[in-house]
From TrEMBL:
Pfam families: DUF2721. InterPro entries: DUF2721. It comes from the Bacteria. This is DUF2721 domain-containing protein.
Length: 120
């Protein structure tokens, strides 16, 4: 056996007799594990926080991008209907609808830019 060193400095170079383990065995398990468990929990928390943050930002950007794509599809449909419409009232309504969708696209683009820039 190679030998060990106890906190009091004894036992170096010699095998440990069982009575030298008495100081270690007398401590309750909670006293031994409390500091190390807290340290491990803090380490895991610190390591995983950026992962959850990036996941949340990525999900938000994905949501905004999907909404922007749907608005673009609606603009395309309304624009196709606008070219085929001959009724003046329907034409005005479709023009108003396309303008509102265009404003929505600008707001979504601004949100995507803001979230993309402030998350990094």
């Amino acid at each position: 056996m190679t030998g060990f060193e106890l906190p009091d400095g004894s036992g170096v170079g010699s095998p440990l007799p069982s009575e030298q383990f008495a100081w270690f065995m007398a401590l309750p398990l909670s006293a031994l594990a409390s500091d190390s468990a807290g340290d491990v929990a803090h380490l895991i928390e610190t390591a995983l926080t950026p992962v959850f943050m990036l996941s949340g930002v990525g999900t938000l950007l994905n949501l905004l991008n999907t909404r922007s794509a749907r608005v673009a599809d609606q603009i395309e449909k309304a624009s196709d209907l606008l070219g085929d419409e001959s009724d003046e009232a329907s034409h005005k309504h479709l023009v108003s609808y396309v303008e509102r969708l265009t404003k929505r696209t600008m707001v979504l683009d601004a949100e995507i830019s803001q979230k993309g820039c402030t998350s990094g």
